[in-house]
Amino acid sequence: RIQVMMSCHDDVAHKGFYATHALIKDRYWWPDMKYDIAWFVRTCHLCQIRQTRQIYIPPTVALPAPLFSKMYMDMMIMPVSGQYCYIVQGRCSLSHYPEFRCLRKETA
């Protein structure tokens, strides 16, 4: 097993677990093969020397827009009531507070 893992890991230029596992699983099988390959790649001296540490960058949290600074608008045609036949609706993106107004014309 060690000889198989050494030759396959060296053939893929020490690319890591996934490349080594993909190469070996097409040709061989043994119980707990995945764990053996993971151990072998983790303990490979050349891989440890060349490994660069990954820098952890914490995720940034987007700040929500203040109340009523971002609005969603929609216009609906309704049955005529009095002189009004349109309703315009606005909704705050943060609080979801709705606001409605009746309109006589669509361009009002």
UniProtKB/TrEMBL annotation:
<dbReference type="Pfam" id="PF17921">
    <property type="entry name" value="Integrase_H2C2"/>
</dbReference>
<dbReference type="InterPro" id="IPR041588">
    <property type="entry name" value="Integrase_H2C2"/>
</dbReference>
<protein>
    <recommendedName>
        <fullName>Integrase zinc-binding domain-containing protein</fullName>
    </recommendedName>
</protein>
<feature type="domain" description="Integrase zinc-binding">
    <location>
        <begin position="2"/>
        <end position="52"/>
    </location>
</feature>
